[in-house]
C-alpha cells in the first residue's frame, strides 16, 4: 500500500507502521488525507479530548510528528501553535509514542496549564487541502 512518498519515488507502507496506524483508527482518531487521495502530501489524525487534542501528521515514513495540543481557544490541528507534549521521528517510533501517551487526566500526564511553543521542525499543512478520510 503506497500512501506517502518518502524521498525519490514512493515506498510501501511498512507492516509494523500499518499495524500501528490501524490501532490509531481503532482508537477513535479522525484521519485526514491531505492532497490527492491517490498520492497524498500528508496524512493527519486527531483525537479530541475534553481539554486537549492528540495530533499526528505523517509526511513520509521517516518524517512524522505527534503532539498533544491544549484547548486554549481555537485549536488548529494542521498548524498547532502551542503543545504540552511533542515527538518527532520515524513513523513507527512516533505513532508508538502517541499510542503510549497517558490519558490527559492521568496523574502522570503533563498539565494543560503549562503549554509551550511548538518546537516541531516539520512544516504545518495548512496550505494543503485536507479532508476527513473514509478510514473512520
Structure in words:
It is globular and about 40 Å long. The two termini are 18 Å apart. The protein is 16% helix and 30% strand. Residues 1-9 have low confidence and may be disordered. The protein has 136 residues and is α+β, with helices and mostly antiparallel strands. A hairpin with a 3-residue loop joins strand 2 (42-48) and strand 3. The chain has one domain. It has two helices and eight strands. The strands form two sheets. Strands 6-4-3-2-1-8 form a six-stranded antiparallel β-sheet, with helices on one face. Strands 5-7 form a two-stranded antiparallel sheet.
Provide key terms for this protein.
single chain, 136 residues, alpha+beta, six-stranded antiparallel beta sheet, two-stranded antiparallel ribbon, 2 helices, 8 strands, 30% strand, globular, disordered N terminus
Task: Put the structure in a nutshell.
The protein is 16% helix and 30% strand. It has 136 residues and is of the alpha+beta class.
Termini separation:
18 Å
Secondary structure category: alpha+beta
State the share of residues found in helices, binned by percent: 10-25%
Q: What value does the average pLDDT take?
A: 79
Order of helices and strands: HEEEEEEHEE
Largest sheet: 6 strands, antiparallel
Helical run tally: 2
Please count the beta strands (DSSP E, at least 2 residues each): 8
| Morphology call | globular
The Rg value, from CA coordinates, equals 14 Å
Give me the side-by-side strand order of the main sheet. 6-4-3-2-1-8
- What's the number of structural domains? 1
Amino acid at each position: 500500500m503506497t500512501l506517502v512518498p518518502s524521498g525519490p519515488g514512493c515506498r510501501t507502507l511498512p507492516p509494523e507502521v500499518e499495524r500501528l496506524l490501524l490501532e490509531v483508527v481503532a482508537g477513535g482518531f479522525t484521519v485526514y488525507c491531505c492532497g490527492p487521495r491517490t498520492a497524498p502530501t500528508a496524512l493527519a489524525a486527531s483525537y479530541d479530548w475534553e481539554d486537549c487534542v492528540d495530533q499526528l501528521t505523517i509526511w513520509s515514513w521517516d518524517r512524522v510528528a505527534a503532539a498533544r495540543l491544549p484547548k486554549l481557544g481555537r485549536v488548529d490541528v494542521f498548524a498547532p501553535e502551542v503543545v504540552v507534549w511533542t515527538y518527532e521521528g520515524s513513523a513507527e517510533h512516533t505513532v508508538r509514542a502517541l499510542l503510549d501517551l497517558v490519558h490527559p487526566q492521568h496523574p502522570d500526564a503533563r498539565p494543560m496549564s503549562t503549554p509551550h511553543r511548538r518546537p516541531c521542525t516539520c512544516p504545518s499543512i495548512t496550505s494543503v487541502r485536507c479532508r476527513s478520510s473514509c478510514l473512520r
